[in-house]
Specification:
The protein has four helices and nine strands; from the N terminus they run E-H-E-E-E-E-E-E-H-E-E-H-H. It has about 170 residues and is of the alpha+beta class. A five-stranded mixed beta sheet has the order 2-3-4-5-6, with helices on one face. Strands 1-7 form a two-stranded antiparallel ribbon. A two-stranded antiparallel sheet has the order 8-9. It is elongated and about 90 Å long.
C-alpha cells in the first residue's frame, strides 16, 4: 500500500479510498516471541491530502487473525482482531512532539504502519480452550504439596555438617 505524491495530487479533491488484503511473510515473526504470524489481514480505509499543510490523513480499519502462542501449552491459537485508527503523514521533517509520520522520497507506505498497529494490539497472553499444562518432561516434573514438603526436609549430604556448626553458636 504505497502512494506517491504525484498520484495523490491527481486524485479528485485529494481524496481516495482503498481496500486491500495484506500478506506478511513468516520470516517477520522469527524473532518475535509474542506472535507467530498473521493471516487474513484486510485493510479498508480512505485518505485525504491536505496540500496546504503538506499532510496526508489516512483513516483505516484493519481486521484479521493473529497466530499467538498459548500461554499454557505453547500451541498456536487463532486470535481475531479489529483495529480502527488514523495515521497522519507529513511531506516535511516533523517536530519531535508532533504525531506525524515523515514521508521519505514523496512515497507514503502504509504497510509498516499497519504492522506496527497490529503489534500494539497483541494481547499479553492467550490460553487455548482445553489447554492443559504438562506435568513432567525430560529432567523435570511438577511437585504436589506433599512432595514439596518432603523435598524441604531433605538435607544434601555434602552440607549436613553445616547444621551442627550453628548448634554450637547458640
Amino acid at each position: 500500500m504505497k502512494w506517491n505524491l504525484q498520484w495523490l495530487i491527481k486524485q479528485k479533491e485529494g481524496q481516495f479510498s482503498f481496500d486491500e488484503l495484506l500478506t506478511f511473510p513468516n520470516e517477520m515473526f522469527h524473532n518475535l516471541s509474542q506472535i507467530n504470524g498473521l493471516k487474513d489481514v484486510h485493510v479498508v480505509g480512505n485518505g485525504r491530502l491536505d496540500m496546504k499543510n503538506r499532510q496526508l490523513y489516512v483513516d483505516y480499519t484493519v481486521e484479521g487473525q493473529m497466530i499467538l502462542p498459548c500461554a499454557v501449552s505453547l500451541e498456536n491459537v487463532d486470535y481475531p482482531f479489529h483495529i480502527e485508527t488514523t495515521a497522519i503523514f507529513g511531506f516535511y521533517k516533523p517536530e519531535d512532539d508532533e504525531d506525524v509520520i515523515e514521508v521519505r522520497r514523496d512515497t507514503v507506505d502504509l504497510t509498516p504502519v499497519v504492522f506496527q498497529e497490529i503489534m500494539l494490539d497483541v494481547p499479553m497472553r492467550v490460553v487455548k480452550d482445553g489447554a492443559t499444562m504438562k506435568q513432567e518432561g525430560k529432567g523435570w516434573k511438577v511437585l504436589s504439596e506433599e512432595e514439596n514438603v518432603q523435598d524441604e526436609d531433605y538435607i544434601d549430604p555434602r552440607l549436613a555438617k553445616l547444621k551442627d556448626y550453628f548448634k554450637d553458636k547458640e
